[in-house]
Amino acid sequence: MLTDFNTQEIWFVTGSQHLYGPETLAQVAEHSGKIVEALNQSPLIPVKVILKPTVKTTEEIFETLAAANHSTQCIGVVTWMHTFSPAKMWIRGLNELKKPLLHLHTQFNQDIPWATMDMDFMNLNQAAHGDREFGFIVSRLRKNRKVVVGHWSEERVQKKIGDWSRVAAGWADWQGARFARFGDNMRFVAVTDGDKVEAESKFGFSVNTWGIGDLVSVINGISDGEVNTLIEEYEASYNMQPSLLQGGADRDSLKVAARIELGLEKFLKDGKFKGFSDTFEDLYGMEQLPGIAVQRLMQKGYGFAGEGDWKTAALVRAMKTMAQGLEGGNAFMEDYTYHLNPANPCIMGSHMLEVDPSLAKSRPSCEIHPLGIGGKADPVRLVFNSRGNVNSLVASLMDFGNHFRLLINKTESVEITEALPKLPVARVLWKPLPDLYTAAEAWILAGGAHHTCYSENLSVEQLEDFAEIAGIESLVIDEDTRIRDFKNLLHLNEVFYR
User: Fold this and answer.
1) Is 48 exposed, middle or buried, given 0-12, 13-18 or 19+ CB atoms closer than 10 A?
2) Sheet with 365-368, edge to edge strand ranges
3) What is the pLDDT of residues 289-346, one digit of tens each?
């Protein structure tokens, strides 16, 4: 379901000029090739790095960057100035570039060759000031980009490039993406709503509403054989509540849940959708609210959020794309209740039914229980506790009318040690940084939503990079957050984005 990193590329573009002669330019190309070879051998960079010919003129720069725009494989461009590349040559190309940009500030040699360094060496290795010239023009043009500083052989540098390439892949996945909205926003709820036209202009994905009747028609067309095959998969994957087993009182409800999953997945595949939202206020024709169906589709890579929250559904998809292949999960989440004991203040996250089992600490349990809202039959769902002792974060995307805001809170997951015999949903427990009281106050001051994407494997820096690519505001709540400073930042940002 997620795009394979093996099909994606970042282009490595080295800048120079004709001033230095063919011998120097040949060395520039040779050195660039060795750097690209090392980056491609690094396990920290999941996509392929493609060496492009050294650009030496305005025309070569424009043609290369324009080609990057039109390449379906290219998800971003890395630039490096081995020698001095006069930056006015870059203006036309940079103005044309629409793909994410990373400026690698490095040099071919790691150490100064004290005993042998001469003027030929100095002419060739000019990145210390060549990259500053390039940096000026990118800033002068007000182009957003990532800057990575250090020697290209360092693991730290390769990790930053690799992390950024994941972010670029998430952005590429949004371009032209389709998200289905079954029903409208939950009635009278503010934060989950937003401007879908502005979102498509800003982010590149579209959100449109599809009638529940259209979905129900597909669900009803699923064969009994397909349902039985999926139930066999359930039984092999989960601890089954006895009443759901063959001959059990709730076996027919399990068949309904499986049919919903198969129909929903077929609808999404046929429509080439990357995610969806639904709402329990619009379920006409459905026997039960999708529970296990949504959980399993998220685990396969689809974005989702409840109550018509298309922004969070899109964010979940982007974060899943960025994190593919990494240990841990990314999942739709909701702050549900607090543990306000001063000795150990925590937040419990959950949602009625729809928490991604990629977060499960152990084999989930497949169960059926009543649901007090929606007015439908008891829904089937997966019940589990999440992993503890993991560095994590929650992120939320809000529409403030004049701009979008991505709000990020660093967290630490906490193992759930108490039994929850009367809470038949998936549960996640975490401590927000710097502490619950400061984090919750800052979150509320920033207008943060109650819906988030919870991540066990992405970094704050990656989400800040994502916001930078999108050209939207990002705010971080972490161990260094102080309310007075945070309020001032909110005021300054309001002026900037207004």
Assistant:
1) middle
2) 239-240, 365-368, 380-383
3) 999 999 999 999 999 999 999 999 999 999 999 999 999 999 999 999 999 999 999 9
